[in-house]
Amino acid sequence: MRLASKRTESVGEVNFRYRWRINGNEYVGSKEFSSHEELLQHIAKLGGELIDILEPSSSSGSEQYFGEDGGNAVDSAIAINATTPAVGVLQEYEYINQLHGKWHEKWEIKSRRVYHLQGRHFEEFEIFLQNGLSERLCFDITSFFGKSDWALVLEWDGGTTYVDKAGIRQVGTSIFALVRYCVNTPGTDKLSNKQFKEMWSLEEYDLTEIKFRSRNMTLLYIDDSIGQPLEMIPEWQPVGKGNDITFKYLLDWKRTGGQPERNDKPRWAPGK
Fold first, then answer.
1. Which tens digit of pLDDT belongs to each residue from 84-109?
2. Is 145 part of a structural domain of the chain?
3. Strand partners, 101
4. 158: Cβ–Cβ under 8 A, 6 or more apart, which residues?
């Protein structure tokens, strides 16, 4: 959606606020259509399905922030439902990939910015498409903005490890957690050739088999920009030196009903 500022004109269209699903994820959208059938056609063209219409309302004549298609940029922002920033950013990229194809192959990022309006938080992507055109997409990131609650679980020779307490969840015998690795010496991302200072890993720990696997990895660069979440090969690995402390922390989280306590500065040195 390209953004511009203009005044509304009453054209007899209706602004539909609706829930829809694409690639297994649910979103809330808001856009002007002349009819319910036009809304269905729009969602079908994107490869999604309509779940529910939340609120149809007539167009107004107020001064607001608009897209070129007449839709209000804030009201029509794609709502992301996530509990942590890493998961939320992953959903943003998945949404754009569904619309335009794979990142780096079909589109590139020109800019990203976060802004706040009416008590909500939004992130705007400006992207370049393969055909030479540019596009802006606005995401409502209120669900996960500032929601991380990082707990220090490990100090090691190369940096520190944190777990996001707000995002821990258990599914069956597995516990999922967002683990943040802060490195003392910046590393280099081979894909972008940019230096990074943190790695965020969405990890799954099997409580019965005492194994773990990383679902995806996100890099935070030294300029505070965030890389695209990278899908990992979900192969189980035995819990070993280093992440055994994370595993014990998550066991404590389960035992205490979500109120774990970290041991007093647990340390380990790679190779020892």
1. 776 788 788 888 988 888 877 888 88
2. no
3. none
4. 183, 184, 185, 270
Asked if residue 10 and residue 47 are part of one domain, the reply reads yes
- In this structure, the answer to whether residues 134 and 199 fall within a common structural domain is no
Residue-number span of the structural domain to which 158 is assigned = 150-268
- The tens digit of pLDDT for each residue in 184-233 reads 999 999 888 889 999 989 899 999 999 999 988 888 888 877 777 777 76
Our count of domains for the chain comes to 2
What's the predicted TM-score (pTM) here?
0.53
Residue 41 lies in a domain: yes
Range 24-61 burial, b when 16+ CB lie within 10 A, else e: ebebbbbbbbeeeeebeebbeeeebebeeeeeeeebee
Report the C-alpha gap between 16 and 51 in whole angstroms.
13
Report the pLDDT averaged over residues 167-185: 90
